[in-house]
Each structure stands twice: as structure tokens, then as C-alpha cells.
């Protein structure tokens, strides 16, 4: 293969040796070391090293085959001797032949796995059957070496920098490494198969794995020749449609949509106009049209959007259903443009939410109150109760903060809003911010017993801070 700087890591050589079942000698050199590894038909046969910690004496001591005294006297033992250390120790009845064989196998694996951590040096590979004694041909399988090397102090940077924007493709598992693949490996590979034409960096995000853990797995299968990498094909039309889909999804989730506005047509539009718009939507947003999206959540968003589009088309394309729908729109606003019916509906939803809140059914109450504030966004009490329900749902506490702020904006002299905002910050372990709102509540109502008790508690104990909060701030 020729001498190369370790800019191309040695494990890449292992990948080729394993895949092509090559025989030869691999020499790896650095400023203060030299290692030689010998391969026969894709297996590691033997290894040598100049690194003191990897020499056979060190290995024998490390694995407990010689004691400390024997280890310290190694230089005296081999002095003026022609035989190798292992043979001398056998002649002295310190080692058995089996002990030496085990140590040499251990040494070969240690030398081979050590090159996975190298970041500089040179390597050279000379093809051909190595000239080794029969008792030095071990036949250590490379998949095990690759697994051990990656599990140790392996640096993923080279691979990550070059492969993060490329799409992994899972191929067939070579027969010679079947026994090295576990059920856990199969599960992970099937997860990777589910992504098509998706950059590796995005797959790591979607699988919610730690970056280093993800890349160690991916590179392991890459070195075993199970995974290959391809350039990602960019579909500009798909990207544009997905962008529009997300915008439409957010709009539909945010507020109740008028079907005429959704289709961007007038309320006297013909059936042909409605049908034409529907087919345009289908061409862009049908779930099958976004099947290649890198984000698996996109298909769920497409199902939601297309479900709404289908419902709109079903109503607007049916004469009777369209008349009924038009009447509902008319009844929502009177002839003078007043929203009395909507305001009354908001009141009904608010009263229902009060009952649900008392029953600690916070999710259900939140749904009613979100609709209530959409219909009438002038009532501080609606926002206050909505935020109170949301603060009891961990994932909605950020929204709770915003709704408390809206309640305070609409009614700045309501001490109850201040107290509950303080309680929210207490839940998020932000005592200083919580105390500030309790003080504001007391300034509005000096007789407020809740605010008094809270402030008394803060005065009695040292203020505690949390390292992180739901609001994404790190406390000092």
C-alpha cells in the first residue's frame, strides 16, 4: 500500500485487510515507537513492538504470570542469554508453554488495538505471506480487534469530520463476521436502514444518542464493511415543500382555521376552483410526498396537515355541508361585526376549565383555556388560570411563564398573578426570581398571607440555586 502519514488512520488498513482477506506486514512508526503486525488471510498472526509497556515482560507481569520480583529481575535473567525471554522463563520453570502462548496472544491484541488511538506517525503495508515460525501464527480475527480498539481510547474526529454530511447505507453482513454481530447490533442497523439519503449528523440527532457513542457504533460497522457512505442527494423541491408544510402545520396548530382562508379562495368559489386547490395541496403535502424527509416527524406533520385539508375539501365540495359550514361562520360574528357569540363561548370554556382545574385535570383544562384565550384574549383571569394549569405540566412551564406575563400585563394589580409566577420559579429552582415576585405581590397587597409566609421562609434559610432550569438558564 505504500508508506502513508497517519492522516489516514491505521484502522482503515484493518478494514481493507479484513474485506480482501489480505496477507502482509504492517509497520507503524512514530517519533519514539515502532510496531509491526503480521497478517495471514485477513487474520492477525503476530505482532512486535518497541513500546516498553507492550513488551512481553510487561505483559507477563500485567496478566499475573510472573511476580514483581521476577519482573524487576528480567534484565538479569536475560543477561548473556541467546534465547528469548519467554523461552528462558520456561526453561527456569517460571512459565508454562500455555502461559507464554496466552501472553503472546494478549500482547498481539494489545499492540493492534493501541493503533486506534494514534493521531500522528507513519505506516507502511507490504503485501505477501509473512515469514513466521509455525508457533507464531495465531490467527486472531480482526472483528474482535476492531471492537476492542473502538471501545478503548478511540478518536472519532477523523471519521466524523469526513462522514458527518454523508448518508450511511447498510449492506449485507459478510458471512465471515456473522458470529461477531449481536441482536443489539441488528436492532441498531435496522434503525439506520430506516433513514434513506439522510446525513449521519442528522441521524444521530433523531436517534437521540450521545455523539461519541453514535459515531463509535457507526465506525465499527464501517470498518467491518457492513456500512458504506454516500453523498446526500439534495432535492430542492422536497426541501421547499417541507418548509411550507412546517409553516402550515404551525399555523393550523396555533389557531382554528377558516377553510376558505386555508384554500385561499373566496366564499363563492366554484367546485372546480376548490378541486384544483385541493390537488395542488395533495401534490405538495401528501404524506407519501415527504417520505424521504430526513426528520421522521415530518410525516406526522404531513398526516396532520393533510387530514385538515381533506376535511376542508370534504365540507367545501359538498353542497349541504358547505351551507352548514357557511352558517357556522355567520353565527360566529353578528351583522355589526361584534363577537358576542365568541365571547360567550369563551366564558363557557373558562367555567368548564375551572371545574377541571379543581379536579386536577390540568391537560383537559389547558385545552379548554387555550381555545378560550383564542376566542377572547382580553381577560386576565383566562390567562391566569391557563398558566396555573400549565405550571403543573413540566413540559408546558415555558408556556406558563408567558401566560402569567400576559395575565400581569392585562391586570398588573393582581397579587395572585405575582404569587403564582413566584411559585413557578420556585418549581424551576430559581429562588431569587421567585422572591422578587413574592415581594411584588406583597407590595400590591400588604395583607396577603401567602406572600408573607413565602418571604418569611426565604429570610430563615440560605437561598439555594439550581445548576440548570427548564428555562434554559444556568444559575451562577
Give a written overview of the molecule.
- With 476 residues, the protein is of the alpha+beta class.
- The protein folds into 4 domains: 4-142, no CATH class; 157-231; 236-332, DnaJ domain (Helix Hairpins); 340-460, Alpha Horseshoe (Serine Threonine Protein Phosphatase 5, Tetratricopeptide repeat).
- It has 23 helices and 8 strands.
- It has helices at residues 10-20, 56-62, 68-72, 74-78, 85-91, 97-114, 142-151, 157-163, 183-193, 200-207, 211-223, 236-254, 259-263, 271-285, 297-316, 319-332, 340-358, 362-375, 380-390, 397-410, 415-427, 431-444, 449-460, and strands at residues 4-5, 24-29, 34-40, 43-49, 122-127, 140-141, 166-170, 227-231.
- The chain has a 6-stranded antiparallel β-sheet.
- Strand 2 (24-29) and strand 3 (34-40) form a beta hairpin.
- The chain is elongated and about 105 Å long.
Write down the overall geometry. Answer: elongated
Largest beta sheet, briefly?
6 strands, antiparallel
Alpha carbon gyration radius: 35 Å
Our estimate of the beta-strand percent is 5-15%
Quickly list its features.
single chain; 476 residues; alpha+beta; Helix Hairpins; 4 domains; 6-stranded antiparallel β-sheet; two-stranded antiparallel sheet; 23 helices; 8 strands; 8% strand; elongated
Topology:
Blueprint: E1 4-5, H1 10-20, E2 24-29, E3 34-40, E4 43-49, H2 56-62, H3 68-72, H4 74-78, H5 85-91, H6 97-114, E5 122-127, E6 140-141, H7 142-151, H8 157-163, E7 166-170, H9 183-193, H10 200-207, H11 211-223, E8 227-231, H12 236-254, H13 259-263, H14 271-285, H15 297-316, H16 319-332, H17 340-358, H18 362-375, H19 380-390, H20 397-410, H21 415-427, H22 431-444, H23 449-460
Antiparallel strand pairs: 1-5, 2-3, 2-5, 3-4, 4-6, 7-8
Helix pairs in contact: 6-7, 7-11, 12-15, 14-15, 17-18, 18-19, 19-20, 20-21, 21-22, 22-23
Amino acid at each position: 500500500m505504500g508508506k502513508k502519514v497517519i492522516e489516514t488512520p491505521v484502522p482503515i488498513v484493518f478494514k481493507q485487510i479484513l474485506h480482501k482477506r489480505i496477507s502482509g506486514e504492517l509497520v507503524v512508526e512514530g517519533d519514539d515507537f515502532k510496531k509491526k503486525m503480521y497478517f495471514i488471510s485477513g487474520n492477525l498472526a503476530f505482532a512486535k513492538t518497541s513500546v516498553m509497556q507492550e513488551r512481553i515482560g510487561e505483559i507477563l507481569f500485567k496478566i499475573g504470570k510472573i511476580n514483581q520480583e521476577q519482573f524487576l529481575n528480567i534484565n538479569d535473567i536475560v543477561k548473556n542469554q541467546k534465547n528469548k525471554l519467554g523461552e528462558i522463563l520456561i526453561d527456569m520453570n517460571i512459565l508454562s508453554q500455555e502461559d507464554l502462548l496466552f501472553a503472546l496472544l494478549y500482547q498481539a491484541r494489545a499492540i493492534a488495538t493501541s493503533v486506534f488511538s494514534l493521531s500522528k506517525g507513519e505506516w507502511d503495508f507490504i503485501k505477501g505471506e509473512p515469514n513466521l515460525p509455525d508457533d507464531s501464527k495465531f490467527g486472531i480475527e480482526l472483528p474482535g480487534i476492531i471492537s476492542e480498539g473502538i471501545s478503548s481510547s478511540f478518536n472519532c474526529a477523523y471519521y466524523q469530520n469526513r462522514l458527518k454530511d454523508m448518508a450511511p447505507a447498510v449492506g449485507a453482513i459478510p458471512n465471515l463476521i456473522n458470529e461477531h454481530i449481536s441482536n443489539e447490533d441488528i436492532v441498531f442497523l435496522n434503525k439506520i436502514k430506516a433513514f434513506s439519503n439522510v446525513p449521519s449528523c442528522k441521524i444521530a440527532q433523531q436517534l437521540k444518542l450521545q455523539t461519541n457513542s453514535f459515531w463509535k457504533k457507526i465506525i465499527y460497522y464501517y470498518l467491518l464493511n457492513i456500512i458504506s457512505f454516500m453523498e446526500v442527494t439534495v432535492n430542492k423541491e422536497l426541501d421547499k415543500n417541507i418548509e411550507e408544510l412546517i409553516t402550515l402545520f404551525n399555523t393550523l396548530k396555533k389557531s382554528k382555521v377558516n377553510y376558505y382562508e386555508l384554500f385561499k379562495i373566496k366564499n363563492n368559489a366554484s367546485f372546480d376552483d376548490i378541486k384544483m386547490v385541493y390537488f395542488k395541496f395533495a401534490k405538495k403535502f401528501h404524506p407519501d410526498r415527504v417520505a424521504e424527509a430526513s426528520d421522521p416527524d415530518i410525516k406526522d406533520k404531513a398526516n396532520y396537515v393533510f387530514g385538515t385539508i381533506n376535511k376542508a375539501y370534504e365540507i367545501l365540495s359538498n353542497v349541504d355541508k358547505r351551507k352548514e359550514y357557511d352558517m357556522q361562520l355567520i353565527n360566529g360574528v353578528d351583522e355589526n361585526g361584534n363577537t358576542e357569540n365568541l365571547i360567550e363561548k369563551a366564558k363557557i370554556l373558562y367555567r368548564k376549565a375551572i371545574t377541571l382545574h379543581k379536579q386536577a385535570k390540568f391537560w383537559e383544562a389547558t385545552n379548554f383555556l387555550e381555545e378560550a384565550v383564542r376566542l377572547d384574549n382580553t381577560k386576565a383571569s383566562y390567562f391566569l388560570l391557563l398558566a396555573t394549569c400549565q405550571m403543573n405540566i413540566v413540559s408546558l412551564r415555558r408556556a406558563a411563564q408567558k401566560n402569567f406575563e400576559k395575565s400581569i400585563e392585562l391586570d398588573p394589580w393582581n397579587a395572585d398573578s405575582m404569587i403564582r409566577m413566584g411559585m413557578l420559579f420556585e418549581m424551576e429552582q430559581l429562588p431569587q426570581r421567585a422572591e422578587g415576585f413574592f415581594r411584588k405581590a406583597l407590595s400590591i397587597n400588604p395583607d396577603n398571607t401567602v406572600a408573607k409566609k413565602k418571604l418569611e421562609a426565604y429570610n430563615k434559610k440560605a437561598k439555594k440555586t439550581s445548576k440548570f432550569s427548564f428555562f434554559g438558564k444556568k444559575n451562577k
